[in-house]
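Fill in residues.
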């Protein structure tokens, strides 16, 4: 059953749509009557997601968001099959944990490439359509863009970079009728986070956070709230309302994090050090082919 509303009959594109938050976001869009293009790296999961969604206006394409030519070709196919998009959700993202000094340079670079460069490539591929439809682009950033998290240097840097990119893009295209928003989800119950909890660094980080910052939220709930932001063409989307308040203490977060991190890092060092990860989750495993 689809809901009548501003997204009914429109074409939406979701990157990183094979599983987790991307898959649930696609589901929420379809419920609102949108035609949805699922983009991602995992063919089997994309196909399963498409089959599980109601209606027949869902298509999927395997594509790496960091590949400019492939993304341009996919945009042309989306336009041909589903019509010009009026919503684009740049959700594709990967993460890894571990101390920067001991991190694999290829893994660090790949996180930045997917999370920042991939977002820019996505915007470049679909902006001509959004200009034509006077559409809306949602950049999925993170709470990690608002405050530094030890042992997640690439993820924090890339999410802050994606946030900044989207804000600049908003300023450049607002006069042409295109809306640009940034979503700031906190911890989402995805395979990526569940695998990350297997590493001491992320477990310790999460345990050191006060409630509600340590709480994990269902992906379907977060997706529903993001899509409500899409319907409103919001400049900022806060799937957890308490994150809205973080904006006001943002300048004071780095020194506070340093104070907490000293004790945390010392405890981890005394316990044998911090184990680093590769790219987390099945989605991260699929993205590893782009490691250089």
């Amino acid at each position: 059953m689809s809901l009548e509303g501003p997204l009914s009959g429109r074409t939406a594109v979701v990157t990183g749509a094979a599983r987790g938050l991307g898959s649930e976001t696609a589901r929420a869009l379809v419920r609102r009557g949108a035609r949805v293009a699922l983009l991602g790296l995992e063919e089997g999961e994309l196909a399963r997601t498409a089959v599980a969604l109601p209606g027949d206006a869902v298509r999927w394409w395997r594509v790496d968001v960091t590949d400019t030519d492939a993304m341009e070709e996919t945009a042309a196919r989306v336009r041909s099959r589903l019509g010009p998009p009026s919503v684009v959700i740049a959700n594709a993202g990967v993460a890894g944990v571990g101390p920067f000094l001991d991190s694999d340079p290829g893994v660090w670079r790949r996180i930045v490439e997917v999370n920042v460069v991939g977002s820019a490539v996505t915007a470049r591929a679909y902006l001509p359509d959004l200009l034509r439809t006077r559409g809306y682009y949602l950049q999925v950033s993170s709470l990690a863009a608002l405050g530094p998290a030890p042992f997640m240097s690439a993820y924090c840097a890339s999410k802050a970079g994606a946030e900044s990119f989207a804000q600049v893009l908003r300023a450049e295209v607002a006069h042409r009728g295109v809306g640009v928003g940034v979503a700031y989800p906190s911890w989402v119950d995805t395979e990526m986070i569940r695998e990350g909890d297997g590493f001491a660094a992320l477990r310790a980080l999460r345990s050191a956070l006060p409630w509600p910052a340590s709480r994990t939220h269902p992906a379907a709930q977060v997706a529903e709230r993001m899509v409500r932001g899409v319907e409103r063409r919001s400049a900022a989307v806060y799937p957890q309302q308490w994150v809205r308040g973080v904006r006001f203490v943002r300048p004071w977060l780095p020194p506070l994090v340093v104070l907490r991190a000293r004790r945390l890092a010392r405890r981890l060092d005394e316990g044998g050090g911090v184990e680093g990860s590769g790219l987390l989750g099945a989605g991260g495993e699929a993205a590893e082919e782009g490691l250089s």
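The mean pLDDT is 90.
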